[in-house]
Every structure is written in C-alpha cells, then in structure tokens.
Amino acid sequence: MIVARQNIYANIDWLTILIWVVMVAFGWMNIYSANFLEVEGSVFDFSMRYGKQLLWIGASLLLALVILIIDAKFYSLFAYILYGIIILILTGVLVFGKEINGARSWFVLGGLQLQPSEFAKPFTALALARILSSHGFMVKKFSDLMKAGFIILLPAALILLQPDMGTSLVFFTFVFVLFREGFSANTMMLMGGLIILFILTLILDKFIIIAGIAGITLFVYYLISRSLKDTLRIFFTLVSLFLVLFAINHFLKLEFDYFRIGLATVIPLAVILAVKILYRRQKRNLKLLAGALIGIFFVISVDYGMNHILKEHQQHRIYVTLGLENDPRGVGYNVNQSKIAIGSGGFSGKGFLEGTQTKLHFVPEQSTDFIFCTVGEEWGFLGTAFVVLLYIFLLLRLIKLAERQRSSFSRIFGYGLLSVLFVHFVINIGMTIGLFPVVGIPLPFFSYGGSSLWGFTIFLFIFLRLDASRLELLG
Amino acid sequence: MNHYTERKYVFMVAVILVGVLFIGRLFYIQVIDKSYEAFAQSNSQSVTVIYPARGLIYDRNGKLMVYNQAAYDIMVTPMLVQGFDTTGLCNMLGLTPEKVKERLNTAKSYSRRVPSVFMKQVDYETAAVFQEKMFQYPGFYVLTRTLRNYQKSIAAHALGYVGEVDQSVLNQDPYFQMGDYIGISGIEKAYESFLRGVKGKSIFLKNAHNQTVDSYQDGKYDVPVTVGKNISITLDSDLQEYGEKLMKPYLGSIVAIEPPSGEILALISAPYYSPDSLVGRRLGESFKQLSADTLNPLFNRALMAQYPPGSTFKTIMGVIGLQEKVISPSTEFHCSYGFWAGNIHTACHLHDSPLNLITGIQNSCNTYFINVLKRILEDPKMSNTAEAYDNWREHLVSFGFTMPLGIELTSELKGNIPTSDYFDNLYGRNHWNYLTVRSLAIGQGELLMTPLQMANAVAAIANRGYYIIPHLIRQIEDEESIPEKYITKIRTSIDSVNFIPIIEGMDLVVNGGRGSTARNARIDSIVVCGKTGTAENPHGNDHSIFIAFAPRDNPRIAIAVFVENQGFGTTYAAPIASLMIEKYLTGEVKRKWYESWVLGQVQPQQVTPEPDTTASDTITDERDNIIDQE
C-alpha cells in the first residue's frame, strides 16, 4: 500500500461531527430551558448557566479545531507523556484542589472551575491504546495484562480518593477494550456473573438465590444431558429433601432459617452427585456442578462479609452506592421526581420552555446529571427517543469507524471512546428513568459543565483526527 | 494484526439492546403510564420544612439557662406573587409601600422561585392576623422558627450566640438554606451538631387552587423532624451571676474551676454584655454597638487577655525548685529590702529575714525567688544556663502554659514564655544568666498568661500535680460521655509531695499572722489557700491578681481573679476571689459589708488596711524598674 498523505478534511468523518453538533446544540437548548427565568437576561448572560455553557461550547469548537490541525502521530508519540501529566494533575488536585460537595475534584482558576478527572478519560485511553498496540503485547499474557490494568487503575484510584465514586467506576469500562483485543470471554462472563450475583445477594433473600442457582443448574443440566428423566429425578430429590428438612426444623423447633435449610439440602446432594460424576468421569457435568458450588460459596462469603466483617456505616455506604438504600439527601425522592418529570412529558412534551417540574426545582441537578429530565418533560417521548437514537447511531458509527482503522492504536483508542460513551449513556439515562442506581455522572455533550464537554470533545476529536489519517498508515 | 474482529458484534448487540430497552421504558413511562402525568398536573407538591427546636442548655445544677421562644417570619416566593392590596399589607405589617417594594426586589434578586424572608420576627398577634388573611396575598406565608431566650442575662461569652448562616456555610453544607440559624460562637458553636437537631420535611400535593390535597405518596418521602439534644454545662449559674455582679465596676476576668474534674464553674470577662442583645433581629444593631465600644465587651478576657502573672507565679517557681532538688522546704535566704548583686538591685518590702520556702510564699519575698531562679539556672546537673532555662520552661509547659488549653471556645490565646533562643538572640549566646532574666522569677518580664491558664495552674496545684483540660460541657443528652479529652488527667512534671510546702505557704498567705499578704481573703469556716500578685502594666495602673483554691483538703474550687488597673492583688482581686469561694462553697455570702466594699458602695477607708502589703510599694529601683508588689 502506498502511503497517501491526503487532505485530512476530505477524510474526516463529517457525519460524526454533525451528530456532535446536534447533540451539543440540543443539550444547550435544554440547559437554557432548565435555567430559564421568565423575565430577565439575554442568552449571553454569563452569570447564568446557559450563558456560561455558550462559552464552553465556543471554547470546545476551538479545541476541536486545534486537535484536528495537530499531526495524528503526535497522539501516539505523546500518549505516555500526556498520561503522565494528567496523573500528576490528578495527584495535585488531591492536595491543592477545592472541595465542593465533599469531594476534592476541582481546580479553581479565577472564575473557571475545572475537573481534571474528566480529562483523564481521553488521556488514559491514549496510554492504553499505546501499550496494547505496542510490539509483542499480548492481552493473554499475565504480565502484559497487569501493565494494562495498572494504566487503567491508577487514575481510577486517584479519582476514588477525591472521592468521586461515579467517575472512578467509569474507568472500569476500559475492560471492554481489553475484551475487544482478545481478553478471555469466559473470564468476562465470570466477572460479570459474580458482579450480578453480588448485587442480587444484597437485594434478594439468600434462599431465593440458592434456589435460583439450583434451578439454573438443573436447567443447564437438562440442556447438556437432554434427559428430562434425569433432570426431574434430581429435581424431585431436591424438593423432597428440602421438605423433609423443613418439617424436621418445624416440628423440633430448631428455628433455622430458609437459607440454612436450603444449604443443608443442596450441599449433601452436591457431594453425592460429585461422587457419582467423578465415578462416571463426566467432565462437563463436573464443570457445571463446580460452577454451581462456586456460586453458592460466593453468596455465603458475600453474606458473611457484609454482616460480620464490615461495620454498619460501611454496609450502609455500599447499599447507598448501589442505590439499595436512600441516603439522607433522599436519592429515592430525586429518582421519583425525575421519573415524574420525564413521565409527565407524554408523547410530544409540554413544549420548549414550558416544563414545570424541572423548573420548580423538583428535580435536582437539573442541568448537569439530570438534564435528560428536561428533554423528557419538554420534548416528550419524541425528544427522548430522538436522543436515545442519536446515541445509538453515534455508538454504532464509532464501532464502524474503529473497525476500519488499520493501526491497532487508532482502533483501540476508538474502542476506548466507545466504551466510555456507552457507559455514560447507560448509567446516566438509566438512572433518570429508574433503571439504574443514582451514580452522579453526566450525559456526554448534553449536561452542563465545561470540563465534561471539553473532556468528551477532546476524546471524540482525537479519534476523528486519527481516523482522518487512517490511510497514511500501513495496516 | 486485527484479530477478534467478530467481537464487534457483541458491542453492536449490546448498544442496540440498551437502545431498545431504553426506548421501551421511555414509551412506557411517557406514553402508556398516565400516572406520572397526573402527578405533575396536580401541580404540584409543596414542601414544608419543619424546623427543629434547638436543644436546651442547663447549668451544672440542672437549672435551665437557655431555652427557645417561637418567632414568626413572613416569607415570600416572588414567582407566586400576584397583584395584592399593598395598603392592607402595609397596615398589617407596619411598613411603607416603598419598603414593601424594596423588600420584594431584594427577594427577587435572591431567587424568584425559592422563598426568602420578607419580614423577620413579627410578633405573635401580627403573625396570627396575617395567617388569617394570607389567601389574599399569594406567594406570602408565615414561617415559624425558634429564637434563643435566656433565663438570666449571664454568661454571654461562654454561651455564645446563634445567628443566620453566612454564604460560606451555605456553600459548604447543603443542609443549610438561606435564613437558617447556626451557632456562631461559644457553646452554641462548639456543640452545634448536637443542639441543632435535624430539619423535617413534609411533602404535600396541591391542587390548582393551591390548597393542600393530600400528603405525597402517603408520606413516604417525608422526613420527621428531630429535636436538638439538650446539654448541661459546667457553669454554676448562681456563681456566674454573682461573679458578674462583683466584676461590674471593673475590667478583668474571673475563672473558677472544679480542680478534680476540670469543670469550669464560672467564666467571667468584664465588661460583659447581655446574651439577649444578640438574639434574632437585635443581633445586627447590638453587634455594631458592642464592636464600637472602646472597652470591647465582645473581647473574652478570660481566654484572650494575656497578663504577666506577677507574684502568683512564685508558687510555681517554688514547686519547680523542689522538683529540681535545688532547694528544700527549709532552704533559707536572707533579704534586706530586696535583692542585691553588684550594682543590680530588685526591691523587696520589709519583712522578717531570713525566710524559708513556706514563709517566702507567705511574705511574697522577691529576693527568695530570685535566689530560687539562680539555683535553677546554675544547677550543676545542667551543662549551661540555656539548657537549665529550657528545662525550667518545660516544667511550665507541663502546667499548660504557652499553648491554648483546648477549651471548647475558639479564639483562646496561648500566652508566652520565651525559649532560651529568645535570650540568645537578645543578649548573645552564653551572654545572659539568672540576673539578666531575674524578673521572670517574680512573674514579670516577658511572661504572659491568660486567666484561664492561671486558673488551670491553680487547679493543678490544688490537685497536687495534675489537671484536666478546663471545659464547659457536662453532659449531652443520649451521649454516654463527654469528649475523651475532657476526662483525661494530664500530669504536670512535678511530683505531688513537692506541692505540700507550697500549699502550706498559700494557706499562710490567707490564714497566717504577721507577714501574710492576703488576710482579707480569709473565710472563717473554710481553709482558703491563695497567693496575691500584681501584673506590671506599662500602659497604666498595674493589674490586681489573686489565685486561690479551697478547701485546702479535697479542694472544690480553684480560682484566678484579674482586675485591671486596680493595683495590688490584695486590694480587689483577693476579696473578689474570697467572696466567690464563699458563695460557691456555702451557697450564700454572709460578709455583705465586704461585698458592698468590692462593689464600691462603701469607702475603702472603712476596711482595715494591710500595712505589711503596702509598706514597700514606694521602694523603687530606677536601674531596672522592678517594683515589688506585696
């Protein structure tokens, strides 16, 4: 292939830029509406959030232009240096930063407040792309994986110290990038499964979880063995053993709870089955049984850890983080208000500047984390569906762009962008419509805030710059 | 290079799945489920904030000191205001139409949607009338808050005051809203988190006519109000009141401590002010007046005034000498009208000679304690004067000097005892000795101590060697204990046996015969141990000081009295301390004539003069300008 140095403006993905423009513009309209007061002020009133956001948008246009002018090689060459600088800044903010709402996340320079953690996302993605694309790097090699893990976890840990749990969690999405580059799918699923099991253990009665694990195991066993007779035989053994133990417990007034009785049912049965399986050397069945037992053991340890090792306030913090308990400021109230605001928009909304719920301060953080409420209330289902579709379109577009890269550096960086955007999208919209616990992270390109807008603009345009030069590099 | 390409489908599927899920959910809550719309239409909820009553404050005997009284603020939400009968409003609230307009504009500039105070603290009658006619004035409502009220107008410095939160608090703590009250100084500030309680919140649904229809979601999101915790403080309100009465004609301070517990029985700074003057609407105006007062009543002398301790310091010189074993109780020094060394002379008054340690304290002999300092600083155990000096200073630090003791009240000052470096810099290394710093031996020179530190040192003497950080908190409702640091004994560097001769001397100061310097502090039924002192004051008349504790065995009160510009300790400070002790230990003062004298209602001539204490005051020495006091 010939190295072709072409005019980057011809190769730039104008479609993505168009989506960016639409998102930022629509976002601003909603910020304007959320802060709009009947009488006073012009659009350029810089004491108001919509006025300030105009400044941020103007500055981000400049940023985008500068990023596009810089040579694409700069980003891979300087990846580690940029990463190093942002790590220094993240360390600095812990010492010199200003504490706002209990987190030391901000630098204040005159009237400007900057949140360095927002800029850490693109620069971490650069460093990750650089190391994953370096010669001889193997995701499956443990020492290499550790290196990549270190690059991801260092900024996450520094941000956790601020403490900003939400932003810190976002960094874990870079695991998806590792997955794209060959990280074991089974390990991913196991990790995902354990996380789900962990949350379920905290939400549901442990007896139900044990029963669930037993049920799923039986179902999988049926799929493997295709023997309804065997499956049913085990099922009835389980149920009758449970009933017997239950009766003994009841009449002897031993007062064991369901969870203990369930364990007393499942564990002896598992031992008997294990012996049988080992005798018959059925490898697949052994794996299944081992999986089920690991699950049960995990549930017991989580339960023990939560109730016996952690102190009450620590338990409380975990529950609050997962959205399982209301915190004193009333997260439950906020989510309910957010749902009411969105729900009251109906099919076509109340109209621009006509929203009442968001304006009357019912919804908290209405221009930052809960900006989607204003969309829902004033633009209705048409508006929200439009935003969701816009995101889906952007994300699918980014997958396409990432996959057409010849250099792994560009592709990996693209997946970094994709993963971070995806997680912000899922968590932010998910929480406003009550599908996700409240984790305070902004909706990219929509939410009010200079740092968030600039951080994501830098992220997107570096990728677009790399994409524009994709033909210059040999695959 | 590009392996695992097929994994892009996992990403695509995930993105599309989430999209479908979100759109489905949005369709459900926005289009299918009409209940959300109904919620919003019933527009809207009104949130009523319920303010908790602030915790009450009791004294050590369970007597109520601080309680609450309801106050009514007229609030306004500018956005909801519609045309109203201005004249009616003006008549009701006693405002001019211009004022009404001005206040509405102020409220608007704060926020159009968030209520702000339109008129603060109207009386009950006005509030009741307004409540009735409120429907004519949309956007206005009455908010009930509580204000502090005081059983007796005493202890303003210790109690502190409550005021509206300022912007910096609003920025830091989302709990507070404009117009909320917070403890700004004193006990009110120190125990704010207990006294405050937690605001409650009721959320109601309102219909189009702004009438309350129902509680929102059956009160699921209501927050019950939590009343503030009551606290007991260590002050004895009767003693405090009596002390304030005695100090009324003077500038100065009294600090009384219960030695074994470190509990402050009385904390008086004169001139003082009435705590009522800093309540609610009066606060701004009173504060301006008090700040402008040249005698500065807001200045808490008990914690912030720093004086040289004068001769009271000789007690501590004595114990340090004993501890370092450079003197014994029977060590004698000669004194003939003062201390002489070459051409240096520090005056002393006429008394028996020689004196030992006990009679040295009794007679307050300057020569004696300059000799003690000489022995301490020339101690052969030490390699040089500087080391011996720093060792001496360390003993003083162990009494709590040179640092804020850690009472709950902020702005406590730390006093001063220079280090050897200070004298090295001043005179040059090894170019100074006990003669250079001899004024320290008699509590003058560079020494500075606060009344609180002196009272604490007296408590340490009374306890024969330890103290507990002086504090004001006695009990907090529902708390098992007061903070750890207020129950922890702190040992001084002095062994308890070494206090015995000093206490003997302090006993003789009050109860001895010839040579005793404060016989006027004597109380017939109680053995009071004390020591007089005079702080040199370059700006005017010297300050009168007296420290004391009583009874001699199992002391229940230790006291330090500072009376500014009143000369010898024995003249005013000693009688005041004596009256305070009598009041506290017996519950009443029998020596009424004495009380009247202190209060200046009787001419001083009627009191038996103390010839032995005044005899020497004319003997001055021009060369070093040190005057003997007692």
Short note summarizing the structure:
Chain A is 70% helix and 3% strand.
What order do the helices and strands come in, and which of them pair?
The complex is a heterodimer of chains A (475) and B (630).
Chain A: H1 8-11, H2 14-34, H3 49-69, H4 72-77, H5 79-96, E1 98-100, E2 103-109, E3 112-114, H6 116-132, H7 142-160, H8 165-170, H9 174-180, H10 185-203, H11 206-225, H12 228-251, H13 258-280, H14 283-309, H15 312-321, H16 331-343, H17 371-403, H18 408-432, H19 450-468
Helix pairs in contact in A: 2-3, 2-17, 3-19, 5-6, 5-7, 6-7, 6-18, 6-19, 9-18, 10-14, 11-12, 11-13, 11-14, 12-13, 13-14, 16-17, 17-18, 18-19
Chain B: H1 8-32, H2 35-41, E1 45-50, E2 57-58, E3 64-76, H3 86-93, H4 97-110, E4 116-122, H5 124-133, E5 140-150, H6 156-159, E6 162-164, H7 167-172, E7 181-183, H8 186-190, H9 192-196, E8 200-206, E9 212-215, E10 231-233, H10 237-247, E11 252-258, E12 263-270, H11 283-292, H12 301-304, H13 314-323, E13 338-341, E14 344-347, H14 357-363, H15 366-377, H16 385-397, H17 420-427, H18 451-462, E15 466-468, E16 473-476, E17 489-491, H19 499-511, E18 529-535, E19 543-550, E20 557-563, H20 573-586, H21 592-598, H22 611-614
Parallel strand pairs in B: 2-10
Antiparallel strand pairs in B: 1-8, 2-3, 3-4, 3-5, 6-7, 8-9, 10-16, 11-12, 11-20, 13-14, 15-17, 18-19, 19-20
